[in-house]
Amino acid sequence: MRIIDMIRTGGKFVSLEFFPPKDPQEWPGFFQTVERLAAVDPLFVSVTYGAGGGTQGNTLEIVRRLRRDMGLTPMAHLTCVGASAERVDGFLSALEEADVHNVLALRGDPPKGDAQFVPDSDQFRHASDLVTHIRRHYPDMGVGVAGYPEGHPECSTFREDFEFLKFKLDRGGDFAITQLFFDARLYWNFTERLGEMGVKKPIIPGVLPVMSVKSAKRVLGFCGASIPGRLLLDLEEADARGGAEAACRVGLEWAKRQCRELLEGGAPGVHLYTLNRPEACLEIVGGLDL
After folding, report:
1. 75-111, pLDDT tens digit by residue?
2. Which of 17, 150, 154, 261 is the catalytic position?
3. What separation in angstroms does the CA of 134 have from each of 41, 97, 145, 172?
4. What percentage of the chain reaches a pLDDT higher than 90?
5. Number of domains within the chain
6. pTM assigned to the model
7. Which H or E run includes 283?
8. Is residue 204 part of a domain?
9. 104 in a domain, yes or no?
10. 3-state secondary structure (DSSP) of residue 13
11. Structural domain of residue 277, as residue ranges?
């Protein structure tokens, strides 16, 4: 079933994102984590892969198992990294054979060590190229795209980035999932401006529980998201006073408040970047009225 159809017929929801281990020997532990989190009844689960695209085959096998063995609705990430028509079609056909009918179409990040993204094919330079291809050749496939409430780091203006998102949705994206952010006001401003541009499709906020000073500072470096000074200060003070456990508690409480505020304010659902940490996600979802 397509995710957009599930969104339209359901109420408030939570969805989850997993980053599976590269080594198949670690998969049993990963699937145990997924099984624990299946208890929150996620509307769907997304499965990513490494920046270089080398673990795409793992993603295919994992979404197949999530659908077949666990009864979840999986969404496979698909990027422009290493993309060709033959490879993209092979991946999409394999998804259909596995009864998986949703993908998240992304440009993708440059491989580790590369400063800039260099497309492997003129046919697939941007996520919008993937969306166009999927809509033309796989019209029944559900398609999600990414959005950036604080603007993509490579865009010169907010307007330019929001226009790119609108273009992806106009080309056939069903909905957007946002990059992580920590201030709900960014989401409201984002959706308001998109609405003024004529965007009516669902925008799902992505939430990451930041549970250490180290991870908070790492976020600042890899995705362009900003961290409120109050959150960073509270994390540092808690770490100095009570160590890692106290800092973790601060991050969890922040994430719980953020999710509640988003849902109560009108967001269709929340998409949790799980970091494959079941205890944190179970606590966050347990505090929501879903």
Report:
1. 999 998 888 899 999 999 999 999 999 999 998 766 6
2. 17
3. 28, 16, 12, 8
4. 69
5. 1
6. 0.93
7. helix 278-286
8. yes
9. yes
10. strand
11. 3-210+267-286
